[in-house]
Amino acid sequence: RDARHRHTNESTRKRVIYYTLFEYL
């Protein structure tokens, strides 16, 4: 459970970074 949640969190983090970059631009 923890491992799966961590994997999902990492994926979401990457997406958040992309969104932030888009908003920054």
Strand content: under 5%
What is the count of DSSP helices, taking H or I runs of 4+ residues? 1
Q: Say how many strands there are.
A: 0
Largest sheet: none
Shape: rod-shaped
The average pLDDT value, as a whole number, equals 80
Cα-atom Rg, whole angstroms?
11 Å
Runs in which pLDDT lies below 50 for 5 or more consecutive residues are: none
Describe the structure.
This protein has one helix and no strands. The chain has one domain (1-25). With 25 residues, it is mostly helical. It starts with a helix and ends with a helix. 92% of the residues lie in helices and 0% in strands. This is Coated vesicle membrane.
Secondary structure layout plus pairing:
Layout: H1 2-24
Task: List key phrases describing it.
25 residues, mainly alpha, 0% strand
Task: State the gist of this model.
With 25 residues, the chain is mostly helical. It has one helix spanning 2-24. The model has no long low-confidence stretch (mean pLDDT 80).
